[in-house]
Design brief:
alpha+beta, Ubiquitin Conjugating Enzyme, 4-stranded antiparallel sheet, 12 helices, FANCL_d2, FA complementation group L, FANCL_d3_sf
């Protein structure tokens, strides 16, 4: 009994869409996946479960793809010790067959094309961005209630209703409306250093606070007005007071107002305005490579000497400190001199020149303070929450 359950578990892991059709485990039906496509198949085993006497039924499309591999499949049926092994072999053979065979065009029934044209007319041709020559791939545009434009690409089959899919897509857009409102406010009222051109799927923003000082926030799309993950970047003497204010004031977080306004209230700051300052006021080049953007990253490590404050790329700083004869390393922390002021600093290989506040501890304290109606203040090393890989 246990052996049978284990075998079924192994088969489910290898092929989750192929399911047993009876309690004896002699009939399986479902789909085998290869190269992102699903193929219908049915496997019938004899009562003695001998694979060599098994019967395999499939669609004519799959049969045509595997036509030149029949003798190999028969050999595998005789040589494989169990059904799981055979399914693994079948998927491998199918992958090879798909690579070596030109795409077979399967004509859809006439009803498919008439239904597709009818759905497109219902939606409106102005929503169609692209349709391939086989009428199996359609790209549509949609507009949410805030007027934001979105695109969806669909791979259709004969059972799909374009109208139903489009309506589901609109419902999904509306469920994310509050999240995009939050991110649009941040993008419109602050200087976002990263990402440079945020896509709608981007959940993080690195917001400029001052010269060589910024905060990286990670927003939960499902709860965009809750306290986000906050990761401060900058010199210790500048970011430490911000961490303290965040910890001391987090009981003031109000889910009824915007995330940006909450951050202003908790940190007791006004973010630099786009109307007054330029982005170049916050984009100081790395002190080692003399560039601002390196392989898509910007300087995020800052010397905490108040008279220095020079920013560096993480990769540049790590390579510099590794090359210094005077540097020393203890586990994942390197101690070395700043390239500009020569003062000894420590650098965490996890990516933090400074210790930063732990997000999970901050969130915990927020909820605890709300429950107890009192404020909490904690300081916790980032590396303690996120161990080196």
């Amino acid at each position: 009994m246990r052996g049978g359950m284990a075998a079924r578990g192994s088969l489910f892991r290898q092929c989750p869409l192929l399911l047993p059709q009876n309690g004896e485990g002699t009939a399986y039906e479902g789909f085998v996946s290869a190269q992102g496509r699903d193929f219908h198949i049915r496997i019938l085993l004899p009562t003695d479960s001998q694979l060599k006497n098994a019967r395999i039924e499939c669609s004519w499309h799959l049969k045509k793809i595997l036509h030149g591999y029949r003798h190999i499949l028969k050999q595998r049926l005789h040589s494989c010790p169990d059904l799981v092994s055979f399914v693994v072999e079948l998927k491998t053979i199918l992958e090879i067959a798909l690579k070596n065979t030109q795409e077979l065009h399967v004509p859809w029934p006439p009803e498919y094309y008439s239904c597709l044209v009818r759905d497109l007319e219902i939606l409106g041709w102005n929503k169609v961005v692209y349709v391939d020559t086989g009428l199996t791939t359609v790209k549509l545009k949609a507009e949410d209630s805030r007027g934001r434009q979105h695109l969806i690409t669909l791979k259709l089959n004969a059972k799909d209703s374009l109208v139903d899919i489009h309506n589901q897509f609109l419902a999904a857009l509306e469920s994310l409306k509050e999240f995009w409102d939050t991110m649009d406010e941040i993008d419109g009222k602050t200087w976002v250093l990263e990402p440079e051109n945020p896509a709608r799927c981007a959940t993080s923003r690195r917001i400029a606070i001052g010269s060589n000082v910024s905060v990286n926030i990670e927003v939960d799309p499902r709860h965009p007005k809750m306290l986000p993950e906050c990761y401060f970047l900058g010199a210790d003497h500048v970011v430490n007071p911000l961490r303290t204010k965040l910890n001391n004031n987090m009981h003031l977080w109000d889910p009824e107002i915007s995330l940006l306004q909450n951050l202003k209230d908790l940190l007791e700051i006004d973010f630099p305005s786009r109307a007054v300052l330029e982005k170049s006021d916050f984009t100081k080049d790395c002190g080692i490579c003399y560039a601002y953007r390196l392989h898509g990253t910007t300087p995020d490590q800052v010397c905490d000497e108040p008279r220095c404050g020079q920013p560096f790329h993480q990769a540049c700083l790590y390579e510099w400190l590794q090359g210094l004869p005077s540097s020393r390393q203890s586990f994942n922390v390197i101690f070395g001199e700043c390239p500009y002021c020569n003062k000894v600093r420590k650098y965490d290989e996890n990516g933090s020149w400074n210790e930063v506040c732990g997000y999970f501890l901050t969130v915990f304290c927020l909820y605890l303070s709300l429950l107890l109606n009192s404020s909490c203040s904690f300081y916790f090393p980032f590396s303690s929450l996120y161990p080196a890989e």
